[in-house]
Amino acid sequence: MNVTSPDRAFKRLRLFIAALIAGLFVSASVIPGSTASTTVLDTLGAATPDTQFSVFGAAGTSLLPSQFVGPQFTLTQPTTLTEIGGFMNNCISIVEGVPLCPGTLPLTVQIRPSVNGVPDPFTVLGSFSLTHDNDPLTVSYESVALNLTLQPGTYFALFAPDNGDQGFLLASATVPFSYQAGSITMGFLNPFTGKSSASQQFGAVRILGETSLLIDGCDTGVSDILLPGAATISDLVRDCAESASNHGQFVSCISHLTNDLKRNGFITVQEKSAIQKCAAQADIP
After folding, report:
1. 3-state helix, strand, coil in the chain (%, to 5)
2. Which residue among 85, 103, 108, 227 is least packed, with the fewest CB closer than 10 Å?
3. Higher per-residue pLDDT: 43 or 22
């Protein structure tokens, strides 16, 4: 929607900002000023991270010393990964209800680039230990909180056992309910031979991240934080773009927006300048 009066657009935006900062629309689930989380990949389906499945009736893809396994994911802008996890168990063999496995160490996850659609056998961008429920009879959501920034591209998050352990990444289960994970492009890597491949499989995984504010492809380097009422900075930039009938109005609107955000402590002087610089260079509207 375009408006012919820039003053009207600025007034509407400033009233909106004032209302947000006054907390008139604050939701109990929102922490103002926190960074907006982006779901990079989520195939958990009906399960939540609190769900626990019985290993009996569960099936999935084996995690072996000779077979690291995990999902492919693609980033379209610089992203800081904040969580990687999946439903896993690190006991591959249970005979007559008795676990026959070491299962003493947590699984790990390796971030590797994609090369020709398969995991790069020679490059590890980061390796992290997952949580561990230490229960061989339960398939739990094992995860890691991390802070790894990746550039746009395609990657694999490969889950791997340690110290000779074995396990599996969950695809389906029957207890406590009938469960089917979502379909993903799954990468496979044999670290001994360097052979890697990828195919479509079922797997219960989740990857979360945080992104910075982009304006017409320009990376401001400023975290796209949540504001009171669950609005983000990008939401307000979009409001400026939709309200402006020419580029000058857009730039002026962004100036008003960043002044308000800076005045109320949501961004710094440097971040204000970075947003305004990208807005000035943008081909908007």
Report:
1. 20, 40, 40
2. 108
3. 43
Q: What gap in Å lies between CA 133 and CA 89, rounded to an integer?
A: 9
Tokens of 105: 């160490």
Tokens for 44? Answer: 């958990």
Tell me if 78 sits within 8 A of 151, measured CB to CB: yes
Strands (E), 151-192: 153-160, 167-173, 179-180, 183-189
pTM of the model: 0.77
Percentage of the chain with pLDDT > 70?
A: 82
Taking only the tens place, the pLDDT of each residue in 69-86 is: 999 999 988 899 999 999
* DSSP labels, 244-268: -SSHHHHHHHHHHHHHHHHHTTSS-
- Non-local (6+) Cβ contacts of 243 within 8 A are 1, 2, 3, 9, 12, 13, 249, 253
